[in-house]
Amino acid sequence: MDVFLDPANRQAYLDGFLTILKLTGASALLALVLGMLLAACRVSPVPVLRALGAGWVHLFRNTPLTLVILFCFFGLYSAVGVEFSEDIHINNYWLAVTGLSAYTAAFVCEAIRSGINTVPVGQAEAARALGLSFSQNLRLIILPQAMRSVVAPLGSILIALTKNATIAGVIGVAEASSAMKALIESNGDQTIAIFAVFALTFVALLVPVGYAFSALANRLVVRR
Amino acid sequence: MRIKRLAAIAAVAVLAFGAAACGSDSDTPSTPSGESPLVAKAKAGQLKFGVKADQPGLGLQAGSAYEGFDIEIAKIIAKGLGGDAAKNTYVTTVSANREPFIQTGQVDIVVATYTINDDRKKKVNFAGPYFTAGQDLLVPTASTITGPEGLDGKKVCSVTGSTPAKRIKEKYPKAQLQEFDAYSKCIEALNTGTVDAVTTDDIILAGYAAQSQYAGKFKLVGKPFSSEPYGIGLKLEDKAGCTKINEILKASVTDGSYKAAWDATLGKSGTPAPTLDVSKLTNCPA
């Protein structure tokens, strides 16, 4: 355990998890917004939008995340030239956020779509009879009820996203698993201790998230 | 039925016990005092070498076989210990697991671009060095970078958590360090112009530059800014083995097999064989 007595190593460990939190925060917000838009596309009356939503979900839900993130670097940035910043670290961070959000949005979309299916069809019919347009119907009647029933699955997606953020390391974002690799490289004899500390930190971060989302789901659920 | 099943279990138990007994017999061959256990293992054809699998010219896995300078050195050692080099087993090691692999006996000897340093000396014993590399830069042929001082604001690529990456962070903080999990990705990024330079030991860079698909595209800056003596790692308590391997290295210089090993691998890029300074071999503390 003396590897964590060195202040430089402790700093690397803290920075690693701070980066994980930053990646998760930005990606969670973007994925939620994008996921909602995609879900709206998938239930919309416009065939092109439905196809777009379905295509996105099928593409990103069935591709390994490592591939998505590597594509963000070698495809989006290297080949196409999408650059967020001159600073390589900021640039890599946003490339990783792009990949993580695009990927997670597919799961968010499917969760929300399943939530939409829990709203009794009479609700939408009544709204339409009152003269509400599709978007008003979705915004005011369907989504508010649907979102309340998918709090728990969204929590699972958030937990998965937090762990998935470690994959940003493949394009050089200095997140927790990269920090772990660096520590093991110079302290090969303490591998198990280092693994244990990183694993337990993830558990300690995510167990409360799980409980919080369960509690929230119970409070918000629409009882029918 | 029940009796049959019991009999079967008993038979399996006896077999397992017998196999275990055999296993322990062959794992620890009887050793005359003062001789390294490596000698007996070599004679039984059971030597396990830890090598790199992703470094062209040094240790590269091609199909199920391994090739490169490190592999040739492993063959010289096996032969010198009295064994048959064709019976060597190679195990892929990465930088992070070399010490644990030696300590737990998953490999007997590590020949894997393994820099001798004080931290590692506390955990394993080093014979050698059989080669001294230095950290250098690989840049596109037209690049104007002439050394690490020219890296300010430039993008330089290395492997996550590696010693060369750490050195760039500490000594040249103005360089923008891109980290990947493998050098092959760095080379790819250099090829597309996404990064301005790749840095690690010169010998590793030379191996990549010599790959046919990159012929004429890259050049080595040629100003090493560190010294990386490559050692041969073995169990900390095996002083006899370490001394023996140093003798084998000395002999390989005299009989020309060291030069032959170089010429068959890294020498193909046109670099002449280095002179191995046998006075610099470790004194094998234990």
From TrEMBL, chain B:
<dbReference type="InterPro" id="IPR001638">
    <property type="entry name" value="Solute-binding_3/MltF_N"/>
</dbReference>
<dbReference type="GO" id="GO:0006865">
    <property type="term" value="P:amino acid transport"/>
</dbReference>
<feature type="signal peptide">
    <location>
        <begin position="1"/>
        <end position="21"/>
    </location>
</feature>
<dbReference type="InterPro" id="IPR051455">
    <property type="entry name" value="Bact_solute-bind_prot3"/>
</dbReference>
<dbReference type="Pfam" id="PF00497">
    <property type="entry name" value="SBP_bac_3"/>
</dbReference>
<dbReference type="GO" id="GO:0005576">
    <property type="term" value="C:extracellular region"/>
</dbReference>
<dbReference type="GO" id="GO:0030288">
    <property type="term" value="C:outer membrane-bounded periplasmic space"/>
</dbReference>
<keyword id="KW-0732">Signal</keyword>
<protein>
    <submittedName>
        <fullName>Glutamate-binding protein</fullName>
    </submittedName>
</protein>
<feature type="domain" description="Solute-binding protein family 3/N-terminal">
    <location>
        <begin position="46"/>
        <end position="269"/>
    </location>
</feature>
<comment type="similarity">
    <text>Belongs to the bacterial solute-binding protein 3 family.</text>
</comment>
<keyword id="KW-0813">Transport</keyword>
